[in-house]
Amino acid sequence: xxxxxxxxxxxxxxxxxxxxxxxxxxxxxxxxxxxxxxxxxxxxxxxxxxxxxxxxxxxxxxxxxxxxxxxxxxxxxxxxxxxxxxxxxxxxxxxxxxxxxxxxxxxxxxxxxxxxxxxxxxxxxxxxxxxxxxxxxxxxx
Length: 141
Known about the structure:
The chain is α+β, with helices and mostly antiparallel strands and 141 residues long. It is built from three helices and eight strands; from the N terminus they run αβββαββαβββ. It is 23% helix and 35% strand.
């Protein structure tokens, strides 16, 4: 299946970091995240959108945390969930890391896409091609 077949799911996802809950919007908004600081959001859960057992996802997440720590990157816990809450993936918001390096990490974990934010906009970045689709942020509260 083409990774972009999952585009609608990424656009419906509610992303949570700390107290902030947001979605992607194709319509301009006045909302921004984290004072426009650069960040990426990546998960190790469910590679290629294939549902794994909870223990396996947790082990993959712990390895992702170890990899990010080894790279010397600052991070914070993140969560991506479907609106119904029946699909939940823990991940990491990674501060200020170069996009290509975060993409390499996401590819190692078999991900279709990551989020990348810069200058007040958020991109859905397709891991396979490196293509960026830019969006605005919409509060999910």
